[in-house]
Amino acid sequence: MRTLEEYNISFFGLKEGNHQFKYKIENQFFEAFNFDEFFDADILINLDFIKKSTLLELYFTAEGVVNVACDMSNEPFDQPVSGSLKIVIKFGEEFNDDNEEILIIPHGEHQINVAQYIYEMIVLSVPKKRIHPGIDEGYLQTDVLEKLKELQPKENKNTIEIDPRWEDLKKLLIDKNE
After folding, report:
1. Contact, 85 vs 60, CB < 8 A?
2. Taking the mean position of all CA atoms in its chain, how far away is CA 119?
3. Contact 67, 36 (CB under 8 A)
4. Angle at CA 154, nearest 5°, toward 152 and 156?
5. 149 within 8 A of 94, measured Cβ to Cβ
6. CB 66 within 8 A of CB 78
7. What pLDDT, in 10s, does the model give residues 37-62?
8. pTM
9. DSSP structure class, residue 73
10. How far is CA 43 from the centre of its chain?
11. Which residues pair with 82 in a beta bridge?
12. 41: Cβ contacts below 8 Å, ≥ 6 apart
């Protein structure tokens, strides 16, 4: 299993300017975080790392698919994911990550591990409700879907007649407004 050390970026020796980093995220990455909602993952991460004299700017983008279970049928399917994240890193007296977009690290630090930010970006880019595309398009046939259709509430064919006295009362309101 890969360790998360490969996501360490040592910025101490980097020149000022833009630096590119690419990562291929697979299911082992999520296992390191004890996250087991994905059966499989194939995601490409591009990181634009901009080093400036007083701060660092990180621009993450993610594109790929994760294999998840459908919330309605429990059938596995590939859910496309895409996301982006921007983080500004400043230097200060002590570590502070209270702000979502600004990270403060101590002056003596010389590297940062970006694995947590990649993890959060991907997990948050997956929709809350995961529905197999075959359900919406009508081509997925499973026992679960058949049972759901069978248990679906039936339309009430008996129309409720409105008491004619209410209709007369409505006429009074209409006549009053005119």
Report:
1. yes
2. 10
3. no
4. 155
5. no
6. yes
7. 999 999 999 999 999 988 999 999 99
8. 0.74
9. T
10. 13
11. 63
12. 25, 26, 27, 29, 30, 64, 65, 66, 67, 122
